[in-house]
Amino acid sequence: MSGWLPRLRSAAVGPPREERVADALRSGLPDLGEAPDRGSIREDLRRLCRRVRGAMCSTIGFVLRPVLHECDGVVVEQFRAVILRPVTEPPTWFFREVVRCGIERGEAWPDATCDLVFDVPPA
C-alpha cells in the first residue's frame, strides 16, 4: 500500500517551490521601467538608485530580503538561478546602461564598467 504514496507525491503538478517563490516575488516587485537618460549620469544614477531602493522597500522587497538571507550551500545556487538573477539582473543592467550613456556623453571614464561598479548600488 505504501508503494503508491511516494509516486503520488512525486507526481505533484506545478513548478518547484523555488520557482513559485520567485514568480511571487517578481510579480509583486514594482516595475523599474527603463533606464533613465536625462543627460546627466549623476542625476540618472540618483534616479535609478531611488527606484531600486523603492522596489526593495516595497512590501515584496521586505519579503525578499529574509528569503535571500536564508540561502546557504546548495539552496543558494538554486535560489541564485531562480530568484537572484531575475530580481537583481535588471537593476544591474540599468546601471550598466546609464554608465554606458555617460561614457558616450564623456561624463565617465571609458573603463568605468567593472562588475564591482554595478554590483554596489543594488546592494
Describe this structure in words.
The protein is mostly helical and 123 residues long. It has one domain (15-119): Tetracycline Repressor, domain 2, CATH 1.10.357. The protein is 68% helix and 0% strand. The chain is built from 6 helices and no strands. It has helices at residues 4-10, 17-28, 41-56, 59-70, 73-104, 115-119. Helix 2 runs parallel beside helix 5 (73-104) and helix 3 (41-56) packs antiparallel against helix 5 (73-104). It is elongated and about 50 Å long. 15% of the residues are buried. Residues 1-11 have low confidence and may be disordered.
Q: Strand fraction band? A: under 5%
Radius of gyration: 19 Å
3D shape: elongated
Q: Sketch the topology as an H/E string, one letter per element.
A: HHHHHH
- Spans of at least 5 consecutive residues with low confidence: 1-11
CATH class: Mainly Alpha
Total number of distinct structural domains:
1
Q: Return the CATH architecture.
A: Orthogonal Bundle
Let me know the largest β-sheet: none
Roughly how much helix do the residues carry, as a percent range? 55-70%
Q: What's the β-strand tally?
A: 0
Number of helices: 6
Structural class: mainly alpha
- What is the end-to-end distance? 52 Å
Q: Under CATH, the topology is which?
A: Tetracycline Repressor, domain 2
Question: Averaged pLDDT, please?
Answer: 75
The name of the CATH superfamily reads Tetracycline Repressor, domain 2
